[in-house]
Design goal:
The protein is mainly alpha-helical. 44% of the residues lie in helices and 8% in strands. Strand 3, helix 5 and strand 4 form a beta-alpha-beta unit. The radius of gyration is 18 Å and the shape is globular.
Length: 168
């Protein structure tokens, strides 16, 4: 999301010493094309962009063999399974088989289907479909251990207390 763009740039610059580019406007994109770049996303280092811009430029994003795609505030992607979140679908298709790292403090906001959506964004073959998922897990505590097992390869929870020694 746009409000976090500068924060990520500051973190990368101060802590990782790696090249990065912020690419989130048509002006910057068009300027790169005018300078002779065939694909402004094809740069060394980290590319920081927004969901909206990545979805808008999905055909360019899809031309890159991404090693890793990191999605901050990933709960915005949770409704991909509904078909209504066209941006999330375009981004998922554009990054293809890249390793997807979803970061969110609020993976489930309103429904257990939020969890389904996030796992589905990473790998749409984990669960059969949202209806079957809902019927199997909604208010079925006897099935929670199975659910926990199935999502354990995708979900990792880190609490404030666990990171307190690293982040002041």
């Amino acid at each position: 999301p746009t409000p976090l763009m500068r924060q990520w740039a500051d973190i990368i610059e101060s802590r990782f010493s790696m090249p990065f580019t912020i690419l989130d406007t048509n002006a910057a994109f068009d300027e790169s094309l005018a300078a002779g770049e065939q694909n402004p996303f094809a740069r060394e280092g980290v590319i920081l962009t927004t969901y909206d811009f990545a979805a808008e430029k999905a055909e360019y994003v899809a031309r890159i063999p991404w090693d890793l795609a990191v999605f901050e505030e990933a709960h915005h992607l949770r409704r991909i399974y509904t078909g209504a979140n066209h941006g999330a679908a375009a981004i998922r298709q554009a990054v293809g088989d890249a390793f997807k790292l979803l970061l969110t403090a609020t993976p489930m906001q309103n429904s257990i289907l939020d969890l389904y959506g996030l796992v589905n964004f990473i790998d749409d073959s984990v669960f059969p479909d949202e209806k079957a998922f809902y019927e199997r897990y909604f208010r079925k505590p006897e099935n929670y251990p199975e659910l926990a097992e199935r999502v354990s390869r995708f979900c990792f929870r880190t609490t404030r207390q666990e990171v307190a020694t690293y982040v002041k």
